[in-house]
Amino acid sequence: MNTLRSVSVHFALLCAVAMPPGAHAQTLVWEDNFNGPGIDGNKWTYDVGNGCQIGLCGWGNGEMQYYTSRAENARIDNGRLVIEARHEAFQGMPFTSARLKTEGRMHFKYGTLEARIKTPVVGNGLWPAYWMLGTIGVWPGRGEIDLMEAGMAAAIANGTANRRIGAAVHWDYNGQQADYDTSYTSPVDLHADFHVYRMTWDPQFIRVSIDGQQYFEFAISNIEGASLHEFHQQQYLLLNLAVGGTYTGITSPAAVTAPLPGRMEIDYIRLYQNPGSQLYVGAQHAAPAGRFGVFTEQADTSGRLNFGQDAELYLWNNLTPIAQAPFEGSNVMAYRANAGAWYGLGIQTDYRNMAAYAGGTLKLHLKTTTPSTFKIGINTSFGDSWVDFAAGGNQYGLVRDGAWHQVSIPFSAFHDLDLQAVKQPFMLVADPPAAPVEIAIDKVYYQSR
After folding, report:
1. Complete domains list, the chain, with CATH
2. What pLDDT sits at residue 226?
3. PROSITE patterns, per this entry (predicted)?
4. Known catalytic residues?
Protein backbone atom coordinates (compact mmCIF):
# COMPACT_ATOMS: atom_id res chain seq x y z
CA MET A 1 0.00 0.00 0.00
CA ASN A 2 3.02 2.29 0.41
CA THR A 3 4.19 4.07 -2.72
CA LEU A 4 7.37 5.80 -1.56
CA ARG A 5 10.59 4.72 -3.22
CA SER A 6 14.19 5.14 -2.07
CA VAL A 7 16.15 1.97 -2.91
CA SER A 8 15.15 -0.41 -5.68
CA VAL A 9 16.68 -3.86 -5.22
CA HIS A 10 15.78 -6.51 -7.80
CA PHE A 11 16.15 -9.77 -5.93
CA ALA A 12 13.40 -11.65 -7.77
CA LEU A 13 12.80 -12.79 -11.32
CA LEU A 14 9.20 -12.50 -12.46
CA CYS A 15 7.76 -14.98 -14.92
CA ALA A 16 4.07 -15.15 -15.78
CA VAL A 17 3.74 -18.89 -15.33
CA ALA A 18 1.15 -21.20 -13.86
CA MET A 19 1.52 -21.98 -10.16
CA PRO A 20 2.78 -25.51 -9.45
CA PRO A 21 0.04 -27.94 -8.46
CA GLY A 22 1.54 -28.52 -5.01
CA ALA A 23 1.46 -24.84 -4.08
CA HIS A 24 -1.95 -25.09 -2.46
CA ALA A 25 -1.40 -26.50 1.03
CA GLN A 26 -4.23 -28.71 2.27
CA THR A 27 -4.55 -27.98 5.99
CA LEU A 28 -6.98 -25.11 6.52
CA VAL A 29 -6.03 -23.18 9.69
CA TRP A 30 -8.04 -19.93 9.43
CA GLU A 31 -10.83 -18.59 7.26
CA ASP A 32 -13.58 -16.04 6.94
CA ASN A 33 -16.41 -16.80 4.54
CA PHE A 34 -18.35 -13.67 5.57
CA ASN A 35 -21.56 -15.61 6.16
CA GLY A 36 -22.48 -14.02 9.49
CA PRO A 37 -24.85 -11.14 10.14
CA GLY A 38 -21.98 -8.69 10.53
CA ILE A 39 -18.22 -8.28 10.40
CA ASP A 40 -16.62 -10.60 12.97
CA GLY A 41 -14.82 -8.50 15.59
CA ASN A 42 -12.77 -11.52 16.64
CA LYS A 43 -11.25 -11.57 13.15
CA TRP A 44 -11.25 -7.94 12.02
CA THR A 45 -10.79 -4.45 13.35
CA TYR A 46 -10.59 -1.06 11.64
CA ASP A 47 -8.20 1.77 10.96
CA VAL A 48 -10.29 4.91 11.42
CA GLY A 49 -9.47 8.47 10.34
CA ASN A 50 -7.40 10.25 7.71
CA GLY A 51 -4.03 9.24 9.12
CA CYS A 52 -3.32 12.58 10.77
CA GLN A 53 -3.94 11.02 14.18
CA ILE A 54 -0.76 8.95 13.74
CA GLY A 55 1.23 11.67 12.01
CA LEU A 56 0.54 10.33 8.49
CA CYS A 57 -2.06 12.62 6.97
CA GLY A 58 -3.47 10.96 3.87
CA TRP A 59 -2.08 7.71 5.32
CA GLY A 60 1.36 8.67 4.01
CA ASN A 61 0.19 8.35 0.41
CA GLY A 62 -1.86 11.48 -0.28
CA GLU A 63 -5.16 9.58 0.01
CA MET A 64 -8.33 11.69 0.14
CA GLN A 65 -10.76 9.49 2.07
CA TYR A 66 -11.70 9.29 5.74
CA TYR A 67 -11.79 5.67 6.88
CA THR A 68 -14.77 4.79 9.08
CA SER A 69 -16.21 1.75 10.82
CA ARG A 70 -19.74 2.59 9.63
CA ALA A 71 -21.92 0.05 7.84
CA GLU A 72 -22.11 2.52 4.95
CA ASN A 73 -18.43 1.80 4.30
CA ALA A 74 -17.93 -1.79 5.48
CA ARG A 75 -20.54 -4.50 5.92
CA ILE A 76 -21.56 -8.07 5.15
CA ASP A 77 -23.93 -8.28 2.19
CA ASN A 78 -25.18 -11.58 0.74
CA GLY A 79 -22.24 -13.56 2.11
CA ARG A 80 -19.60 -11.08 1.02
CA LEU A 81 -17.53 -8.43 2.73
CA VAL A 82 -18.26 -5.12 1.02
CA ILE A 83 -15.89 -2.16 1.35
CA GLU A 84 -17.53 0.89 -0.17
CA ALA A 85 -15.96 4.22 -1.10
CA ARG A 86 -18.42 7.12 -1.13
CA HIS A 87 -18.28 10.71 -2.31
CA GLU A 88 -19.45 12.55 0.81
CA ALA A 89 -18.00 15.22 3.05
CA PHE A 90 -17.01 13.64 6.36
CA GLN A 91 -14.69 14.89 9.10
CA GLY A 92 -13.13 17.42 6.74
CA MET A 93 -12.47 14.92 3.93
CA PRO A 94 -14.34 14.70 0.60
CA PHE A 95 -14.66 10.89 0.53
CA THR A 96 -15.25 8.02 2.95
CA SER A 97 -14.25 4.37 2.80
CA ALA A 98 -12.99 1.60 5.10
CA ARG A 99 -9.79 -0.21 5.97
CA LEU A 100 -10.04 -3.52 7.81
CA LYS A 101 -7.21 -5.51 9.34
CA THR A 102 -6.62 -8.66 11.39
CA GLU A 103 -4.08 -7.00 13.70
CA GLY A 104 -4.26 -8.58 17.13
CA ARG A 105 -6.79 -11.10 15.81
CA MET A 106 -4.77 -13.20 13.35
CA HIS A 107 -1.10 -13.09 12.41
CA PHE A 108 0.87 -15.74 10.56
CA LYS A 109 4.29 -16.63 9.21
CA TYR A 110 4.44 -18.75 6.05
CA GLY A 111 1.35 -20.30 4.54
CA THR A 112 -0.86 -20.38 1.48
CA LEU A 113 -3.37 -17.55 1.55
CA GLU A 114 -6.29 -17.53 -0.85
CA ALA A 115 -8.90 -14.81 -1.37
CA ARG A 116 -11.72 -14.40 -3.87
CA ILE A 117 -12.07 -10.69 -4.64
CA LYS A 118 -13.92 -8.45 -7.06
CA THR A 119 -12.45 -4.99 -7.53
CA PRO A 120 -14.52 -1.92 -8.44
CA VAL A 121 -14.19 0.14 -11.60
CA VAL A 122 -11.01 1.94 -10.56
CA GLY A 123 -10.46 4.53 -13.30
CA ASN A 124 -9.85 7.11 -12.35
CA GLY A 125 -9.01 7.46 -8.67
CA LEU A 126 -9.96 4.28 -6.78
CA TRP A 127 -7.21 2.20 -5.21
CA PRO A 128 -8.26 -1.22 -3.84
CA ALA A 129 -5.60 -3.09 -1.89
CA TYR A 130 -5.16 -6.52 -0.34
CA TRP A 131 -1.92 -6.57 1.64
CA MET A 132 0.03 -7.47 4.79
CA LEU A 133 2.13 -5.76 7.46
CA GLY A 134 4.62 -7.21 9.93
CA THR A 135 3.91 -7.26 13.64
CA ILE A 136 7.43 -6.33 14.80
CA GLY A 137 9.28 -3.05 14.42
CA VAL A 138 8.65 0.22 12.64
CA TRP A 139 7.95 0.53 8.91
CA PRO A 140 9.74 -0.31 6.66
CA GLY A 141 11.63 -2.53 9.10
CA ARG A 142 8.42 -4.40 9.94
CA GLY A 143 8.02 -5.46 6.30
CA GLU A 144 5.09 -5.08 3.93
CA ILE A 145 3.70 -7.48 1.34
CA ASP A 146 1.27 -6.00 -1.19
CA LEU A 147 -0.61 -8.94 -2.69
CA MET A 148 -2.93 -6.99 -4.97
CA GLU A 149 -3.31 -3.30 -5.76
CA ALA A 150 -5.21 -1.72 -8.64
CA GLY A 151 -5.74 1.76 -10.04
CA MET A 152 -2.09 2.66 -10.64
CA ALA A 153 -1.24 5.84 -12.53
CA ALA A 154 0.65 4.03 -15.30
CA ALA A 155 -2.38 1.86 -16.04
CA ILE A 156 -4.64 4.90 -16.12
CA ALA A 157 -2.26 6.49 -18.62
CA ASN A 158 -2.30 3.54 -21.02
CA GLY A 159 -5.98 2.66 -20.68
CA THR A 160 -5.57 -0.60 -18.72
CA ALA A 161 -6.64 0.61 -15.27
CA ASN A 162 -9.40 -1.98 -14.89
CA ARG A 163 -7.22 -4.87 -16.08
CA ARG A 164 -3.91 -4.17 -14.41
CA ILE A 165 -2.83 -5.15 -10.88
CA GLY A 166 0.39 -4.79 -8.97
CA ALA A 167 2.22 -6.62 -6.18
CA ALA A 168 5.17 -5.45 -4.12
CA VAL A 169 7.31 -5.91 -1.03
CA HIS A 170 8.88 -3.19 1.12
CA TRP A 171 11.61 -3.67 3.73
CA ASP A 172 14.62 -2.10 5.40
CA TYR A 173 17.94 -2.39 3.56
CA ASN A 174 20.94 -0.99 5.43
CA GLY A 175 18.79 1.65 7.10
CA GLN A 176 16.92 2.69 3.97
CA GLN A 177 13.58 1.76 2.47
CA ALA A 178 13.87 -0.93 -0.19
CA ASP A 179 11.19 -2.06 -2.62
CA TYR A 180 10.51 -4.65 -5.26
CA ASP A 181 7.34 -4.48 -7.33
CA THR A 182 5.82 -5.70 -10.55
CA SER A 183 2.49 -5.61 -12.36
CA TYR A 184 0.31 -7.85 -14.47
CA THR A 185 -2.31 -7.02 -17.11
CA SER A 186 -5.28 -9.35 -17.17
CA PRO A 187 -6.99 -10.21 -20.47
CA VAL A 188 -10.36 -9.33 -18.87
CA ASP A 189 -11.75 -6.44 -16.84
CA LEU A 190 -11.26 -7.36 -13.19
CA HIS A 191 -14.38 -5.53 -12.01
CA ALA A 192 -16.64 -7.77 -14.10
CA ASP A 193 -16.29 -10.82 -11.84
CA PHE A 194 -14.50 -12.34 -8.86
CA HIS A 195 -10.94 -13.59 -9.17
CA VAL A 196 -8.91 -15.86 -6.90
CA TYR A 197 -5.68 -14.37 -5.54
CA ARG A 198 -3.28 -16.84 -3.97
CA MET A 199 -0.04 -16.26 -2.11
CA THR A 200 2.38 -19.03 -1.20
CA TRP A 201 4.91 -17.95 1.42
CA ASP A 202 7.66 -20.25 2.64
CA PRO A 203 11.22 -19.76 3.91
CA GLN A 204 12.51 -19.37 0.34
CA PHE A 205 9.92 -17.43 -1.67
CA ILE A 206 6.84 -15.24 -1.70
CA ARG A 207 4.74 -15.99 -4.79
CA VAL A 208 1.40 -14.48 -5.82
CA SER A 209 -1.03 -15.56 -8.53
CA ILE A 210 -4.41 -14.61 -9.98
CA ASP A 211 -6.63 -17.47 -11.12
CA GLY A 212 -3.58 -19.76 -11.15
CA GLN A 213 -1.40 -17.36 -13.14
CA GLN A 214 1.69 -16.31 -11.19
CA TYR A 215 2.50 -12.61 -11.45
CA PHE A 216 4.90 -12.05 -8.55
CA GLU A 217 7.88 -13.91 -7.12
CA PHE A 218 10.37 -12.70 -4.54
CA ALA A 219 13.25 -14.69 -3.03
CA ILE A 220 13.63 -14.17 0.72
CA SER A 221 16.53 -16.50 1.57
CA ASN A 222 20.29 -16.43 0.99
CA ILE A 223 20.32 -12.91 -0.42
CA GLU A 224 23.76 -11.35 -0.19
CA GLY A 225 23.79 -8.17 1.89
CA ALA A 226 20.17 -8.40 3.01
CA SER A 227 18.79 -10.47 5.86
CA LEU A 228 15.17 -9.86 4.81
CA HIS A 229 14.23 -10.79 8.38
CA GLU A 230 10.98 -8.87 7.89
CA PHE A 231 9.69 -11.71 5.75
CA HIS A 232 10.48 -14.40 8.30
CA GLN A 233 8.23 -12.90 10.97
CA GLN A 234 4.48 -12.89 11.47
CA GLN A 235 2.30 -10.52 9.46
CA TYR A 236 -1.37 -9.56 9.53
CA LEU A 237 -3.86 -8.87 6.72
CA LEU A 238 -5.34 -5.59 5.53
CA LEU A 239 -8.14 -4.82 3.06
CA ASN A 240 -8.98 -1.30 2.00
CA LEU A 241 -10.34 0.87 -0.78
CA ALA A 242 -8.57 4.22 -0.98
CA VAL A 243 -9.60 7.25 -3.03
CA GLY A 244 -6.80 9.05 -4.83
CA GLY A 245 -3.22 9.12 -3.68
CA THR A 246 0.23 8.92 -5.18
CA TYR A 247 -0.30 5.37 -6.45
CA THR A 248 -3.16 6.57 -8.65
CA GLY A 249 -1.62 9.91 -9.57
CA ILE A 250 -4.95 11.49 -8.58
CA THR A 251 -4.40 14.16 -5.95
CA SER A 252 -7.49 16.39 -6.16
CA PRO A 253 -11.16 15.46 -5.62
CA ALA A 254 -12.15 16.96 -8.97
CA ALA A 255 -9.87 14.50 -10.77
CA VAL A 256 -11.67 11.46 -9.34
CA THR A 257 -13.83 10.16 -12.19
CA ALA A 258 -14.37 6.56 -11.03
CA PRO A 259 -18.07 5.81 -10.47
CA LEU A 260 -19.05 6.24 -6.82
CA PRO A 261 -20.09 4.58 -4.64
CA GLY A 262 -17.45 2.04 -5.60
CA ARG A 263 -17.34 -1.41 -4.04
CA MET A 264 -14.55 -3.85 -3.34
CA GLU A 265 -16.12 -7.24 -2.56
CA ILE A 266 -14.46 -10.21 -0.85
CA ASP A 267 -16.16 -13.61 -1.03
CA TYR A 268 -13.76 -15.46 1.27
CA ILE A 269 -10.23 -15.52 2.67
CA ARG A 270 -8.61 -18.83 3.61
CA LEU A 271 -5.23 -19.62 5.13
CA TYR A 272 -3.62 -23.03 4.69
CA GLN A 273 -0.63 -24.30 6.63
CA ASN A 274 2.78 -24.66 4.99
CA PRO A 275 5.94 -26.27 6.45
CA GLY A 276 7.31 -24.03 9.19
CA SER A 277 4.08 -22.05 9.50
CA GLN A 278 3.23 -20.09 12.63
CA LEU A 279 -0.26 -18.87 13.49
CA TYR A 280 -1.49 -16.50 16.18
CA VAL A 281 -5.25 -16.26 16.74
CA GLY A 282 -6.06 -13.66 19.37
CA ALA A 283 -9.32 -15.29 20.44
CA GLN A 284 -7.31 -18.35 21.49
CA HIS A 285 -4.93 -16.29 23.65
CA ALA A 286 -7.30 -14.15 25.71
CA ALA A 287 -5.98 -13.21 29.14
CA PRO A 288 -8.35 -14.41 31.87
CA ALA A 289 -10.30 -11.84 33.84
CA GLY A 290 -9.13 -10.84 37.29
CA ARG A 291 -5.82 -9.08 37.81
CA PHE A 292 -3.09 -9.00 35.15
CA GLY A 293 0.34 -7.87 36.28
CA VAL A 294 2.12 -5.38 34.01
CA PHE A 295 4.90 -4.41 36.44
CA THR A 296 4.38 -6.20 39.74
CA GLU A 297 5.85 -8.95 41.86
CA GLN A 298 2.56 -9.76 43.57
CA ALA A 299 1.52 -13.39 43.31
CA ASP A 300 -2.23 -12.67 43.39
CA THR A 301 -2.55 -12.23 39.62
CA SER A 302 -4.26 -14.32 36.95
CA GLY A 303 -1.27 -13.64 34.70
CA ARG A 304 1.61 -11.22 34.37
CA LEU A 305 4.45 -10.07 32.16
CA ASN A 306 7.90 -11.54 32.63
CA PHE A 307 10.57 -8.99 31.80
CA GLY A 308 13.41 -10.36 29.72
CA GLN A 309 11.13 -13.12 28.42
CA ASP A 310 7.93 -11.65 27.00
CA ALA A 311 8.26 -7.97 27.91
CA GLU A 312 10.84 -5.17 27.95
CA LEU A 313 10.99 -1.75 29.57
CA TYR A 314 12.23 1.03 27.27
CA LEU A 315 13.45 4.43 28.46
CA TRP A 316 12.78 6.66 25.47
CA ASN A 317 14.32 9.97 26.49
CA ASN A 318 15.75 12.04 29.35
CA LEU A 319 15.41 9.47 32.14
CA THR A 320 18.17 8.49 34.56
CA PRO A 321 17.61 5.79 37.21
CA ILE A 322 17.62 6.95 40.83
CA ALA A 323 17.69 5.10 44.15
CA GLN A 324 14.18 4.52 45.49
CA ALA A 325 12.68 1.94 47.82
CA PRO A 326 10.01 -0.02 45.91
CA PHE A 327 6.38 0.08 46.95
CA GLU A 328 6.43 -3.73 46.75
CA GLY A 329 9.00 -6.42 46.10
CA SER A 330 12.52 -5.58 44.97
CA ASN A 331 12.02 -3.72 41.66
CA VAL A 332 10.77 -0.23 40.90
CA MET A 333 10.70 2.20 37.98
CA ALA A 334 12.32 5.31 39.50
CA TYR A 335 13.90 8.05 37.39
CA ARG A 336 15.05 11.63 37.23
CA ALA A 337 14.26 13.83 34.23
CA ASN A 338 16.16 17.03 33.57
CA ALA A 339 14.43 20.32 32.85
CA GLY A 340 13.99 21.44 29.28
CA ALA A 341 13.57 18.09 27.51
CA TRP A 342 10.64 15.70 27.15
CA TYR A 343 10.83 12.40 28.96
CA GLY A 344 9.10 9.09 28.55
CA LEU A 345 9.11 5.33 28.97
CA GLY A 346 7.09 2.36 27.79
CA ILE A 347 6.62 -1.34 28.41
CA GLN A 348 6.65 -3.38 25.19
CA THR A 349 5.25 -6.89 24.87
CA ASP A 350 3.86 -9.28 22.30
CA TYR A 351 0.25 -8.72 21.30
CA ARG A 352 -2.04 -9.33 24.27
CA ASN A 353 -5.76 -10.00 24.09
CA MET A 354 -7.04 -8.13 27.15
CA ALA A 355 -10.69 -8.04 26.06
CA ALA A 356 -11.76 -9.51 29.42
CA TYR A 357 -10.67 -6.22 31.02
CA ALA A 358 -13.10 -4.01 29.11
CA GLY A 359 -14.92 -2.01 31.76
CA GLY A 360 -11.97 -2.47 34.10
CA THR A 361 -9.16 -0.28 35.37
CA LEU A 362 -5.45 0.40 34.96
CA LYS A 363 -3.97 0.61 38.45
CA LEU A 364 -0.52 1.71 39.54
CA HIS A 365 1.29 3.24 42.47
CA LEU A 366 3.04 6.53 41.73
CA LYS A 367 5.29 8.77 43.80
CA THR A 368 6.30 12.30 42.77
CA THR A 369 6.26 15.96 43.77
CA THR A 370 6.37 17.43 40.28
CA PRO A 371 3.65 20.00 39.52
CA SER A 372 4.21 19.62 35.77
CA THR A 373 1.96 17.87 33.26
CA PHE A 374 2.41 14.30 32.11
CA LYS A 375 0.27 11.61 30.51
CA ILE A 376 -0.21 7.88 30.88
CA GLY A 377 -0.98 5.78 27.83
CA ILE A 378 -1.61 2.39 26.27
CA ASN A 379 -0.70 1.39 22.71
CA THR A 380 -3.03 -0.96 20.82
CA SER A 381 -3.87 -1.71 17.20
CA PHE A 382 -5.68 1.66 17.17
CA GLY A 383 -2.43 3.48 18.05
CA ASP A 384 -1.56 5.42 21.19
CA SER A 385 -4.29 6.37 23.65
CA TRP A 386 -3.57 8.80 26.49
CA VAL A 387 -4.99 10.16 29.71
CA ASP A 388 -3.63 13.61 30.64
CA PHE A 389 -2.61 14.68 34.12
CA ALA A 390 -2.86 18.48 34.11
CA ALA A 391 -0.32 20.69 35.86
CA GLY A 392 -0.86 20.48 39.59
CA GLY A 393 -3.86 18.20 39.13
CA ASN A 394 -4.64 15.20 41.32
CA GLN A 395 -6.79 13.13 38.96
CA TYR A 396 -7.56 9.44 39.48
CA GLY A 397 -6.06 9.33 42.99
CA LEU A 398 -2.76 11.05 42.22
CA VAL A 399 -1.35 13.14 45.08
CA ARG A 400 1.87 15.05 44.40
CA ASP A 401 3.27 14.99 47.93
CA GLY A 402 6.27 12.68 47.52
CA ALA A 403 4.51 9.65 49.02
CA TRP A 404 3.17 6.53 47.33
CA HIS A 405 -0.44 6.78 46.14
CA GLN A 406 -2.57 4.43 44.08
CA VAL A 407 -3.70 5.82 40.74
CA SER A 408 -6.74 4.12 39.19
CA ILE A 409 -7.67 4.98 35.59
CA PRO A 410 -10.77 3.33 34.10
CA PHE A 411 -10.14 2.00 30.61
CA SER A 412 -13.18 4.01 29.53
CA ALA A 413 -11.07 7.16 30.07
CA PHE A 414 -8.77 6.15 27.21
CA HIS A 415 -9.95 7.19 23.75
CA ASP A 416 -9.92 4.57 20.95
CA LEU A 417 -8.60 1.60 22.91
CA ASP A 418 -8.50 -1.87 21.32
CA LEU A 419 -8.06 -4.17 24.29
CA GLN A 420 -8.01 -7.20 21.98
CA ALA A 421 -4.65 -6.06 20.61
CA VAL A 422 -2.52 -4.45 23.33
CA LYS A 423 1.13 -3.94 22.35
CA GLN A 424 2.35 -1.50 25.00
CA PRO A 425 0.27 -1.94 28.17
CA PHE A 426 1.82 1.03 29.95
CA MET A 427 3.49 4.25 28.80
CA LEU A 428 4.31 7.54 30.51
CA VAL A 429 5.34 10.67 28.61
CA ALA A 430 5.75 14.33 29.54
CA ASP A 431 6.54 17.56 27.74
CA PRO A 432 9.74 19.36 28.79
CA PRO A 433 9.39 20.31 32.48
CA ALA A 434 10.49 23.70 33.77
CA ALA A 435 12.39 22.06 36.64
CA PRO A 436 13.94 18.63 37.21
CA VAL A 437 11.47 15.84 37.93
CA GLU A 438 11.74 12.72 40.05
CA ILE A 439 9.08 10.09 39.57
CA ALA A 440 8.65 6.50 40.78
CA ILE A 441 6.18 3.89 39.52
CA ASP A 442 5.41 0.44 40.92
CA LYS A 443 2.73 -2.25 41.13
CA VAL A 444 1.20 -1.63 37.70
CA TYR A 445 -1.64 -4.00 36.82
CA TYR A 446 -4.94 -4.35 34.97
CA GLN A 447 -8.04 -5.05 37.04
CA SER A 448 -11.22 -6.40 35.43
CA ARG A 449 -14.66 -5.37 36.68
Report:
1. 7-282 (2.60.120.200), 285-447 (2.60.120.260)
2. 64
3. GH16_2
4. 144, 149
